[in-house]
Amino acid sequence: MSDNQLAVEVVRGEMQPWSDYSGKRGAVQGPALRALLTDVLPDGARTLIVGPHGADLVEAVVAKASEATLLVRSVSDAGELGETFGERLQVVAGALDGLAEAGRPSYDVVVAADGLDRVIGYDSPDLNWSQRLDALAAVCSPDAVVVLGLENEFSLTNLLDRRPADQRHGDDEWRPLHDDPTRPVSTEQLLAELDRVGLTGAVTYASFSVAETPHALLATDLAAEARPGQLPTRLAVEALEAASTVVPLLAPIADSAEAAARAGLLASTPTGWLALRGGTPSHSIYAQTTGHPAVLTADADGDVWKVVVAGDEVEAEGALAFDSSVVPATVPGGVTAETLLFRLAAAEDVPGFRDLAGRLGDWARSQTSNVLPRWDDVVVNGDSFAFGVSAWVTVADETEQDRLAAAWARFHDRLIGTHRRHPWPPWMVGDDLVSAWLAMSGIEAPQQTPATTPDTPSASVAQVARGKELAAALATALGVPSDGSQTPDVRTALADVDRAAQEIHELKGQIFGLERTLGFRDKALKTRETRLREMRTQVQKANAERTKLKNSRAYSAVKLIRQAAQIRNPRKFAGKVKRRVKRQLRNKLG
To answer: Which parts form a coiled-coil structure per UniProt (predicted)?
Structure first.
């Protein structure tokens, strides 16, 4: 056992063997939460970290504290953390109630971002959530800065999770708090519980997380006011869509999130909440940029958002690269172009869709930036448009056709792939539909050429080929599987089944028609073959009679008479015959 492991303190409630850093649930972590803690926590305070937290969060807390202690219930986890941080961090193995009974001095800062689910062991009393909060308040000083996380049982990811309850929860099953009636289920109840134990004046953030990583932290009042297409809603939806890659769902989570935002309930349906007491956050929004660990912070300033993206650039490995410098300092507070396009498509307003597509094309061609346009991140700015917070840029010098084709190819996947309502025929999908949208944007459609073979691609395939490659590269950069490896939600899977069944029915009809046509043609070919055989027999007979006639004496006599009849000067002909006969007789006699 190393010196660091010997330095681990043990209080009542330790668990061994056990680990809270593996299994169904890992430790809470992430750059967005780390940035929030860095802004909130004071410098030089005596700090306690309760529950499993990632190394990045522990490092951020230790860097701000004068004395830092970490409480985990697993002895093995405590030993590993002691080896990692050494003398900078005092690691305690045991339960929260055991620490409260140990008589240690109160702490000026308490960080429990993982919540109170994993703070007691199998030897601890059966404490409900309120009793655990009492134990937490017992180790806090009166003016302590407290960061407390709470999982939301009414979250969209939980409501749409298609797994049964026994498969949904992990390490907290020693004392299942999701069935605890004292557990808060709203921000109002959470603040009331904090006030009960003397932790007054707290503010809350709505946390939209992927597994144990908060991807978007929105001030609760801001999330309650967010509407579909606006920046807070877009960040929340992106985080929930990323969460759908690890949680099997019943229905598309983006539709439900936008519906909640439309009803003003987005703050009631996040993955969880984060209560901050005693500290003042610097920003209203902390978010991890999609596909990159850079942190985006934003604050409302009238009708615009002041945005800062802090993160290193990513060296180009393919068609795209991440460049935080291209994100504008201010982003309009309006909705995105995609939101309007979806509305026009659902209303079957083709003229309005064509007009908006034309304006988007004119705006895109007027831009000199190499940012890859995304209609879900291009914001309506009065009569024009503006780039949002996307920092993905193209590496090569792409043409305006390729950039627009990439934007429309991505829109095609988000419109057709999610089975949204639209006015275009069901057979007009894929490259042909993207090419039609490009034509609306001012890119002339290629002239169609007749197919020379059955598998000859259409002209639209070449027009949108590079755009589809850029859209696929963007999907890969954003962490969206483009190879179909992601398991779809049940609603989408059923819709795909219905679409496949309809296509099978249509193909069966085509096959039946082709079989009938082939049958008719087979009969016609058989009739033609029979007639050809009869004609061939007749020709053979005629040729045989003709040959027989040519070999007969009568034919020779007729031929001779015919030739004699063609003589024009009989006397001259007779003289020639006479001379030839004499010459032959002379040759025989002589």
So the answer is: 490-552
How far apart are alpha carbons 589 and 586 in whole angstroms?
5
Contact 111, 48 (CB under 8 A): yes
Query: For the chain, percent helix, then strand, then coil, each to nearest 5?
Result: 45, 15, 35
Split at pLDDT 50, 70, 90, the class of 266 is very high
The whole-angstrom separation of Cα 354 and Cα 437 is: 8
Tokens 């300092």 belong to: 329
Kind of pairing, strands 90-93 and 107-112?
unpaired
The confidence score (pLDDT) of residue 2 equals: 43
pLDDT digits (tens, 9 = 90+) for 386-431: 999 999 999 888 889 999 999 999 999 999 988 899 999 888 888 8
Alpha-carbon distance of 176 to 471, in angstroms, equals 43
Contacts of residues 431-435 at CB distance under 8 Å and 24 or more positions apart, as own/partner, are: 431/458, 431/460, 431/461, 431/463, 431/464, 431/468, 432/458, 432/460, 434/405, 434/408, 434/409, 434/460, 434/464, 434/467, 434/468, 435/460, 435/463, 435/464
Rounded distance, CA 580 to CA 242, Å?
113
Alpha helices in 53-150, H assignment, sequence order: 55-64, 75-85, 96-101, 129-138
pLDDT digits (tens, 9 = 90+) for 268-313: 999 999 999 998 899 999 999 888 889 999 999 999 999 999 876 6
Residue 577 has phi, psi (to 5 degrees) of -65, -40
Within 13 A of 177's CA, how many CA atoms are on the CB side?
24
User: Band of the pLDDT at 315, cuts 50, 70, 90?
Assistant: low
